[in-house]
Design a protein that fits this description.
Layout: H1 2-18, H2 22-33, H3 38-44, H4 54-89, H5 107-121, E1 125-126, E2 132-133, H6 135-138, E3 164-165, H7 171-179, E4 184-193, E5 205-215, H8 220-235, E6 241-248, E7 251-260, E8 277-286, H9 288-293, E9 302-309, H10 310-318, H11 331-334
Parallel strand pairs: 1-4
Antiparallel strand pairs: 2-3, 4-5, 5-9, 6-7, 7-8, 8-9
Helix pairs in contact: 1-2, 1-4, 2-4, 5-10
The chain binds zinc ion (ZN).
Zinc ion (ZN) binds near residues 272 and 276.
Length: about 350
């Protein structure tokens, strides 16, 4: 009897281990634990035993039952798991489809495109220049004094060969004027670099859009009308501009141009420090020294130039409080601009 039980357990282990699907497991269960299964029949054999042998046989029988029950559970679990795997490997046509998200332009790129579209309608064409510039194009030709603080290596990234990462898009003006005769009417959007400590409004790399118009009899009134038209197109019909005297080395006279605050429509709020105005563009009439540097006759030609920060425009337009959001590549931030 004990020997037979041992054999049953060995056979059952083999049968359950080999069962590959639910049906095979059920077959094995019937063969060993069913009404006419081998273990059930062995239980019936107890009656034929000598009474003194019964306790030992009973104990062995119980152990065999427990063992077989465990084997059955294990086999069931194994088959269920592999079944689930097989199902997931297949294609379930009843599942809903996965939606593919559409990409979108980065807010900085979108703002550049918007600006360019507005200036194109005003008759400007796009000009581009390299991000690696010569000191001449970035400073000298733009009438920047040799002791001007912006030239300091603490403010500007210089390369070992003497070139620099351009600190503004203005060198594109120089390149264009040196390569063609007036009239010139260009906008130059692009990336600039300064050694600023990054904070909510400063970034070591940022974008500007630069405008230049050189022709006969170009005046400050022309500059004002162009910037006014831009302000209305960008921020709505009610946007107004004002000009304040300022100083830049490459323009004379120079102005700082403010737009009506878009947050409060000019009433005064924390964004505009209660002035109702936001500083947007630096501009002015091209300094005769700059025209001379590129070989234009300042007696014959006059021109205006202006520059604006792209990130600043985008921050105002979309109410973004920190310039660093544009460069963190957080998909949750970028998704808002679709
Ligand atoms: Zn305001």
């Amino acid at each position: 009897m004990l020997k037979e039980l041992k054999q049953i357990v060995v056979d059952a282990e083999k049968a359950f281990a080999e069962a590959a699907d639910e049906r095979a497991v059920e077959d094995a269960r019937v063969a060993f634990l069913g009404r006419k299964g081998r273990l059930t029949l062995a239980t019936g054999g107890m009656k034929t035993l000598d009474p003194s042998d019964r306790p030992a046989a009973g104990k062995a029988l119980n152990e065999a039952k427990k063992k077989l029950a465990a084997l059955l559970e294990e086999a069931k679990k194994r088959v269920a798991e592999s079944g689930a795997k097989a199902k997931s490997a297949g294609i379930d046509v009843t599942l809903p489809g996965r939606q593919r998200r559409l990409g979108a332009k980065h807010p900085v790129t979108a703002m550049i495109d918007d600006c360019v579209a507005i200036f194109r309608r005003l008759g400007f064409i796009v000009a581009e220049g390299p991000e690696l510039e010569s000191v001449f194009n970035n400073f000298d030709a733009l009438n920047t004094p040799s002791d001007h603080p912006s030239r300091d290596p603490r403010d500007t990234f210089y390369l070992a060969d003497g070139r620099l990462l351009r600190t503004q898009t203005s060198p594109v003006q120089i390149r264009v004027m040196m390569s063609q005769k007036p009239p010139v009417r260009i906008v130059a959007p692009g990336r600039c670099f300064r050694r600023d400590t990054p904070d909510a409004t400063h970034s070591m790399n940022f974008h500007q859009i630069e405008g230049l118009y050189v022709d006969r009899d170009v005046s400050l009134a022309d500059l004002k009308s162009v910037l006014e038209a831009f302000a209305r197109e960008m921020f709505g019909e009610k946007a107004a501009i004002r000009m304040r005297p300022h100083f830049f080395p490459f323009t004379e006279p120079s102005v700082e141009c403010d737009f009506t605050c878009v947050m409060c429509a000019g009433k005064g709020c924390s964004i505009c420090k209660n002035s109702g105005w936001l500083e947007i563009a630096g501009a002015g009439m091209v300094d005769p020294a700059v025209l001379e540097a590129v070989g234009y006759d300042p007696e014959e030609w006059t021109g205006f130039a202006f520059g604006m920060g792209i990130e600043r425009l985008a921050m105002i337009k979309h109410g973004v409080s920190d310039i660093r959001y544009f460069y963190e590549n957080d998909i949750r931030f970028l998704r808002q601009f679709r």
